[in-house]
Amino acid sequence: MIRLAFYIAVALVIGIFAFWLAAHPGQVVVEAFGLEIRTSAAASLVLLLLLTFALAFSWRGLAWLIELPTQLRKGRAQSRRDKGYDALEMAVIAAASGDAQGAVKNAERVKMLLDRPALSGLLAARAAEAAGDIAGAERQYQILLEDKRTALAARRGLVRAALERRDYRAAIGESMAAFDAEPGAKWAFEALFDAQIAARDWAGAITSLSRGEKRGHIVSLAAKRRRAVLLAAESSGAEARGDEDEARRLAEKAVIAAPGFAPGAALAARLLVAAGKSWRAAGLLEDAWAAKPHPALALAYRDLKEDEREKSRAKRLRGFADLNPEHRESRILNAEIALDENDTQTARMALAPILETETPPSSRLCTLMSKIERAADNAREANVWLSRSLSAPSEPDWSDLDPEGPAFGYRDEDWARLVYSYGDAGELIHPRHERFERMPLDPGQALFLQAPEDIEDAEDDVKAKTTIVGTGDEASETMTEAPNDPEDQADKVVEKSVAPKRTRSRKPRNPRKKAKSENRNKPAKESEPKPEAVPSPDLDVAGFPRQPDDPGPLPENTSDDADMQARKREVH
Length: 572
Known about the structure:
- Among the domains are: 2-111, no CATH class; 133-216, Serine Threonine Protein Phosphatase 5, Tetratricopeptide repeat (Alpha Horseshoe); 441-499 and 534-545 and 561-572, no CATH class.
- Helix content is 59%, strand content 5%.
- It has 22 helices and five strands.
- It has helices at 2-23, 41-97, 100-113, 117-130, 134-144, 151-164, 168-181, 186-198, 202-214, 220-241, 244-257, 262-274, 278-291, 295-302, 310-321, 328-340, 344-357, 363-375, 379-391, 412-425, 431-434, 511-520, and strands spanning 27-32, 35-40, 464-469, 476-481, 494-496.
- The strands form two sheets. Strands 3-4-5 form a three-stranded antiparallel β-sheet, with no helix packed on it. A two-stranded antiparallel sheet has the order 1-2.
């Protein structure tokens, strides 16, 4: 509509101008080169307009002819650029879809068609990475280092390539250079820290962690936890080298960084006790227990004083548990203290809140309840809890601590994992549980269950089950008579001392029994004593699968006459 109005206005102007010319007739005379040209004013004006248009078109045509080669070159360049962008698009799509061959092919086309070395170089390097050509990618990134615009991206690529071939020193060098050049690059901090952890460079990782915390690349809580783990790992290394003073100093710094970090507190306490600073060790353990109780802390606190009366030790441990009385570990510690004092009622009351909330109870709790019931001379309940412990879930949180050895037997790879598991999530790892490592057998903390065996009886041929509790000279045999009702089978328990079987002389029913009878009838001086059965660490009882922390039976020499298998159980 606006365009139509414009055309109408132009037509009106032309009409008015023509009417004006017609109303004012005149004559135009042109004399030049001996010629005289006479015409009307209107005709001369129209002729002038035509000449002007002709001159304009002539000039435009001449300019087009002059610019024609340039336009041809621009057209070819535009076509080449369009093809390059098409190749770039195809290369990116191929790399994203995992087509390494297509990515490399299109990257080469981009390099030929586009005059953008930074873009084509980055694309060629990423295509080489997609194809698995790490060396080719590194060559491309080395070229890109010369350009300031792509230097940071090139270092990131070199870090990836170094980590891919597990060259952690090269990764540390490249990521450190990137972090120095651009401290705000979070990826540079994370790559540097991860490479230092992989290289077990604990001191360097602590320095990088402090720089990253200042730049806001990691939250304060996670930084404190990671620092505690790194200090404890460095302390462990110093102890292995024999530098006790440095190890003790680093362990104390680890506890200060995170008081609830149990491995650091246990390590610091052990080193302080070795240096004769038990009071300082006690303070660290108390702070750690108040922050987050752990079974290892209770053992370390118990062993602070060697020559101590039982009542004094129990009083000291109760005060230790009162630092965090509502925690699960504090209740378990109180139950163990009461059990040592033979106060079974108090022990039951301490465990009652835990048993009410945990369903099903763990193997650790079942075993502890079995000990409590046995101490209360309640054999039936003790046997029930002992049976439940075989199929109960285990606790992968150092509930199987070795009282005589180090609580946390971490290796370098374990410390490296702990940096992230505890630093980021506040969770400890149990590598001994994961590696299916066995704890040394402690006679005071072992239970062996004997499998059922057939016992001949002259009158009713009764079958019985035998349970051996304890080890060595203190072993006793518990016989459970086979009742008529299967539900009452675990309720009838009769204890008796171990004694050799009575010699019987009767006609054997088969040749095997005949040979057995002849051996029994031999004189006592000629008969060989029955070897004492050695329980196997693996109990094969139907319905009670092997626990996840049990790697299986160890090769041991067992007696051929005794069909006995046993399983080690941890007592806490």
